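fwd from M.: "can u put these together and see what the complex looks like"

so here's what she sent:
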Amino acid sequence: MSLLDTPLTRQLGIDVPLICGAMYPCSNPELVAAVSAAGGIGVVQPLSMIYVYGHDLREGLRLIRHTTDKPIGMNVLIERSSKMYLDRMKAWVDVALDEGVRFFVTSLGNPRWVVERVAPMGGIVYHDVTERKWAEKGLAGGVHGLIAVNDRAGGHAGPKSAAQLLDELGDLGVPLVCAGGVGDEAAFVAALEAGYAGVQMGTRFIATDECGAHADYKHAIVAATESDIVLTERVTGVPLSVIRTPYVERIGTKAGPIARWLLRGRRTKHWMRTIYALRSAWQLKRASLAGGAREATSKDYWQAAAAALSASGTAPSARPRA
Ligand SMILES: Cc1cc2nc3c(=O)[nH]c(=O)nc-3n(C[C@H](O)[C@H](O)[C@H](O)COP(=O)(O)O)c2cc1C
């Protein structure tokens, strides 16, 4: 049996067990379309589609459909930060269903409402998890698969290695996808051989022709090595892996004492998180679309994961080589 024939490919009806993970602010419709057209599956990040790339969600999904009719997914961030946000997310899920999307990747919070909304229409839900506790919560909510976000992932990494997560989650009876640190064919094959049903990649897809991020950001990814990546709390309040630019070096990586105190408080932590979310959305959008974060005056943050970029020094294409 082919290594590419896995529970993930069978469940989603795709040829290659490779997910291009949702990325705020790097997921543009062209990247999602290119990955799906090539046989993997691209995942739309609705906030990126709407607020970074300026598409109405339905129009953006139709744009993807001009390139490919293969399956695509959508990311559903389900943290209940506000009722307004939750209502908006539910409306986006309905638009996606209406436009034929049948794969949903949930992160943060309880995915039950997503399952209840999409499963009756044949939708499949995979839940991002960093440890067993969250996996069990997701499974109690009815998810069909798990994305094991390891300690090498871009965005918000988990505390455990890919091997530890396979051990910890391997007996749960659903397909497991490896997210974090995969940047070349060898690492992709290794994850499948270890027992993962697929791989979710992020960083490696930013430095592609199809990604809409600024050329300076792509070049910084291609040029960076593991030692250029640091974890900073200053963007979202929890550790986020970014490229060490002169600005990051100057400003440091720890949240300020007042922010840290507010993040700990039972009541203040929710609004502190909202403030961080709004500010980071704006900061990351600006950094992804504008160049020059290497300049000493720039205050931009470029997200990237160490392992995925050390694998190769050349910009890959979203299309697999023949
Ligand atoms: C720039 C960037 C933004 C990301 N944004 C999101 C997001 O909005 N939602 C999400 O579920 N995951 C997000 N992720 C995580 C990716 O979907 C994926 O799991 C991760 O990048 C895999 O690790 P890798 O970068 O080592 O390949 C992001 C990752 C990166 C690098």
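replying to her w this: Strands lie at 18-20, 41-44, 73-77, 103-107, 124-129, 145-149, 176-179, 198-201, 229-232, 240-243.
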